Amino acid sequence: MKVSLKMLAPVLGLALSSMALADGPNPREVYVKSISHGGTGCPQGTVGTYISDDGKVFTLSFDQYSASQSRGSDPAKARSYCNLGLELNIPQGWQFSIFKIDYRGYANLDAGLSGVIQSSYRFSGGASTPVLRQTLSGPVATDYLKTDNIGISSLVWSPCGVTRALNIKSEVRLEGDRARSGLMTVDTIDGEFKQIYALQWRRC
Fold first, then answer.
1. Which of 31, 82, 85, 163 has the least C-beta neighbours within 10 A?
2. What is the C-alpha to C-alpha distance for residues 55 and 47, in angstroms, rounded to an integer?
3. pLDDT tens for residues 65-113?
4. Are residues 28 and 82 in contact, defined by beta-carbon separation less than 8 angstroms?
């Protein structure tokens, strides 16, 4: 599926940066090889994928990544999730870890209703970070920003000498009075939703 950047409404972006890495790996050797996805918020056929020519940035556009409810609606619609698998090319002799991630989205919630966005990160076969969560309480109708700052003690480092996917789990859901109406989505009202992944490096 071909996706124009101008057409990307909800988006998920990844920036692989070599900033402040004086003794880090050659940035030309670090890039996204492929992306897989699955979940109620990103089933097959509903996601547009863009990867820059140098593999440093990717963008995913979503058609169905939202949680909503109203009186009498299906409770299952009040939760939506997306699992991503990123295969990255990493130079030999280096490990990396995510340490900061920004999420942007939109929430419209009645009083008595809360919206939750949460995320966690894990390399295949390894331990996961704690679940990182942000809650918005109604009444509210606003864009939101969620920033994950993962402390040194919680860093999840890539394995040395092997290639494994980086798994990213994210979720939006509504909690509270089932008679209230609400919407929480990964689509901002101005058509932009980004997650920017900064990488921290160390030698094996």
1. 163
2. 18
3. 899 999 888 899 999 999 988 887 777 787 777 777 778 888 999 999 9
4. no
Q: How far apart are CA 200 and CA 18, in angstroms?
A: 9
For residue 121 the two structure tokens come to: 């990160």
Q: Give the pLDDT confidence score for residue 151 in this predicted structure.
A: 67
Q: CB-based burial of residue 3 (10 Å sphere; 0-12 exposed, 13-18 middle, 19+ buried)?
A: middle
Query: What backbone phi and psi angles, to 5 degrees, belong to 68?
Result: -150, 160
| Amino acid, res. 42 | C
Confidence grade of residue 139 (pLDDT, cut at 50, 70, 90)? very high
For the chain, domain boundaries: 5-203
Two tokens at 44?
Answer: 């097959």
**Could you tell me which of 36, 15, 7 has the C-alpha nearest to residue 194?**
15
